[in-house]
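User: Hey, my collaborator sent me this sequence without any context and asked if I could get a structure. I don't really work with proteins. Can you help?
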Amino acid sequence: MMMKKLSLKTGAVLGISLLFASHTVFASPTLQEGSHGHDVLLLQKKLQAVGYEISSVDGVYGAETERAVAEFQRDNKIRITGIVNNATWRALQKAKKVKWGSDVPKPITKKNDVALKSKGALAPNNTPILARNKVGALLQTARSYIGVPYQFGGTTPKAFDCSGYLQYVFAKNGINIPRTADEQYKLGLRTKTSKQLVPGDLVFFTTYEAGASHCGIYLGEDKFIHASSSKGVRIDTLKDDYWAPRYLGGKHIVK
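Assistant: No problem. I've predicted the 3D structure and written it out in C-alpha cell form, which is a compact way to encode the shape of the chain:
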C-alpha cells in the first residue's frame, strides 16, 4: 500500500522540527512579519531558548519577533533583514544559550536588590536636566552595570529593561525620570543630528512598536550604553547595522 503524501503544511512543520532535533539541514520555510502558525511558534521558542526576549510566544510573527530575529542575525553576522531564511535557521540550530555579559565580567549583585525610588518630583520635560559636572558620575554609574541581564519589566541590578535601566541610573544620581521609554522621550531638547549629542544625552529607537520603544545613554563618538534584549547592559554604536535604521532621535538633556 502506498503511503499518503504529506501535505505541504505538515511537511514544513516536520522539516523545521527535524531541523532543531538533528544536525541535518532541511529546507525550511521562509518566515517574516505577517507569518503565523506552528513554524513561527517553534521559531519563537528557539529564540527564547537561546536568550532573546520575546514576551508573547503565540505563533504570530509580529514586530517583536522580527526585532528578536534581527538581533540574532546581527549577533551571528548574518545579513540583517528580520526575515528568517535558511541561513538563519541553520544558525539557530547551532545556537547556544547567550551568556549574559560574555564580553565583560558579570557584576555581583546583592540578593536583596530592590528598585531604587527617587525622591521629589519628576524631572521636567522639554528642558535639560543633567548638570554638566554630574555627567562623569552618571556615566560611571551606567557602566558599572555592564553585563546585567535583560528582563522585560526589570528595574533592579538583578535584571533591567531599557527604560528601567535608565530610570535606575538616573535615580542613583538624584534625578527622578519617568519609567517608560515613550515618557522619557519627552525629556530634554530634540536634536536634529547625532552630531549635536554630548555624553550624557539620551538616544531613542523604534523597535517592537511605533515611536520611542527603546532607549539608551549617549557616551560620545557614536557609542551608547543600554539594556539590550539580547545581551543585557552593553555598549553599542549608532552606526550598527541593526540600530542605525531604527534610530528615532536624540534628546539633549545636559545643561
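In plain terms: The CA atoms of residues 138 and 173 lie 6 Å apart. You can pass these C-alpha cells on to your collaborator as they are.
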